């Protein structure tokens, strides 16, 4: 597949050109679209760059690159992440994006910050999902509330909140069944989990986080939209950034749907999670 | 939303704009190509693949013949369809069977692509075809992955071979010995998900391959994958020389770009698509039929396949007789709903109809598979007599039925009205002359 290799090599040199001609913009488009941000966002960013270069009389690639970085970072709309306790995090997402692993990583994150953590095995649907979370709970030495396969996930959450209140736990993280966002009855179940949590512990702070797989394309937008239709979505955990995927699809999600990225995941170890950092994210897109 | 429906809709829109003009200028073709390119990219087709595709189609489309042709738009659509079919790889390719058993099928792919579930689906499919499969659990990294396969195996009564977190290379060898000993003719190996750039884990796959020389190495890809499809499939193919691809999770509103990109990059056929969460939701992939479906030409062949699977010949003949004699009753209605359900539901059937697939969004709200379920519940709350002769259902019977089915009386009324209307329609079809004008109107409505 010589053609692909040549093409990607060419991309790398997009910024080594000196002149801002059509070739430059063509290659820039390829670079942006290849990050999965979508054609529309790519066009918007290119238009903005063109205008900016025109206004600031920028004619060389070096300066254009600085402006492009600025635009790419600005569009991520980052604001400081602060958690208030007691905190109940409900983790949602479609199948296979890495929900359970992300929960383990967040648990480690909060433990490192000297917070107590409790897990709720709310994925009562997938075969062996509870076992998977249970394994993590044992490894991380945190308590887990679980019932059998096929149990009512809302009742698991109810039990978990009772225990959380009794022991003054700082953080409760609720795992939920992976669901394709096109399945309405499973979405209803999420609403129920949310309602019960708010009814049983109104003083707590609530965060609904959606896990997105960085290797998925434009479909991630549809996923966030569908979940937003049933429950509030307060932020994104973007996983699998350790591969070559760039996860550019978060651009339209941040800008059109107003959902910020909170965490990024980059590996299978429990420490492979960090608070979102716009600089390194954009570095990867421009790589 | 069905597989590819987004792309289908966009392309149909582009072509419908073109048709109005009659003859095409090269400028119009260029504009259409630009729009098709955007549509492909929005459907997650790889940037380079989309570019090549447009170049090829443009080259063919600006030829003299097209510009002179009286139906230039049709010609362009034909070119696009032919190229789409080529892009996806022509005809359906079946699973290879080893001349010397056991046939060994090895899965590989990224984390979360759906390998374990696919193992279960494939095992069930092969079992139904009379094979004796053995599932082998080799995902020793993800917590509880082995448990997941064991639960799946148990639910379909298929043996699962596992050696805990032992070295997978050793495990697969033992599994093949086990299959030989117990005369199991197909070995399906689940492997751990891995990133294509993880050299250590990629080496593990190579070692497994070397140890047992699989008949099939299937690359499992999430149909929702983005631009990464190319890098991922290329790396797995370079490492393992895979024999085919399976696209999973095509039941979300998948754009299907991966299906278009992968084949052209690694030259390996897509053999199956996973179409749902149930273990029976696995279908062979037909590139030619898929191309027609994308372009709104429907996929009647797959529809017939599905119908044949869902309805046996005897039932079909019986149904035909009842239609003819107009003795179709509410029991038959349930039978019909059940077959429809076996075929994937009303939406799935409609999406395969010519002229419909591009308009799925518009009719999405009009059809509701849940309504069929509701109707079924209503009928099941009727007595045998009522089902055979709905005319006897009076007010108090309606109330009893509504209560039994947990619905409103108006729902029962609607069902009975629908039923009598369809009976009326059948009578007209049987004797069109007597209804003259009315029949012509219906035919027109049905677009005949």
Oligomer: heterodimer
* Tally of strands of chain B: 8
CATH C-level class of the largest domain in chain A:
Alpha Beta
- Based on Cα principal axes, name the global outline of chain A: elongated
Mean pLDDT of chain A: 88
Q: Please give the count of helices of chain A.
A: 11
What is the spatial order of strands in the main beta sheet of chain A?
3-2-4-1-5-6-7-8
Give the overall shape of chain B, derived from the CA principal axes. flat
CATH topology of the largest domain in chain A: Rossmann fold
By CATH reckoning, the class of the largest domain in chain B would read Alpha Beta
Amino- and carboxy-terminal Cα gap of chain A: 21 Å
> Which stretches of chain A are poorly predicted, pLDDT < 50 over at least 5 residues?
1-8
Q: What composes the largest sheet of chain A?
A: 8 strands, mixed
Q: Give the total of domains of chain B.
A: 3
Can you describe what's shown?
- The complex is a heterodimer of chains A (287) and B (448).
- Chain A is elongated, with a radius of gyration of 21 Å.
- The two termini of chain A are 21 Å apart.
- The longest helix of chain A has 17 residues, at 39-55.
- Chain A is an alpha/beta fold.
- In chain A, α6 links the parallel β2 (117-122) and β3.
- In chain A, 49% of the residues lie in helices and 15% in strands.
- Chain A contains 11 helices and 8 strands.
- An 8-stranded mixed sheet of chain A has the order 3-2-4-1-5-6-7-8, with helices on both faces.
- Chain A folds into 2 domains: 2-74, Up-down Bundle (Four Helix Bundle (Hemerythrin (Met), subunit A)); 87-285, Rossmann fold.
- Chain B contains 22 helices and 8 strands.
- In chain B, α1 runs antiparallel to α2 (26-42), α8 runs parallel beside α9 and α21 (409-430) packs across α22.
- Chain B has 3 domains: 5-88, SRP54, nucleotide-binding domain (Four Helix Bundle (Hemerythrin (Met), subunit A), Up-down Bundle), CATH 1.20.120.140; 103-285, P-loop containing nucleotide triphosphate hydrolases (Rossmann fold, 3-Layer(aba) Sandwich), CATH 3.40.50.300; 303-351 and 368-422, Orthogonal Bundle (434 Repressor (Amino-terminal Domain)).
- Chain B has helices at 5-19, 26-42, 47-61, 64-68, 72-88, 115-128, 145-155, 168-181, 199-212, 229-240, 257-266, 287-294, 300-310, 313-325, 330-342, 345-351, 360-364, 369-380, 384-388, 395-405, 409-430, 432-445, and strands spanning 103-109, 133-138, 160-162, 186-191, 216-222, 244-248, 270-274, 282-284.
- Chain B has an 8-stranded mixed sheet, sandwiched between helices.
- By secondary structure, chain B is α/β, with parallel strands linked by helices.
- Chain B is flat and about 75 Å long.
- At the A-B interface, α1, α6 and α9 of A face α2, α7, α10 and α11 of B.
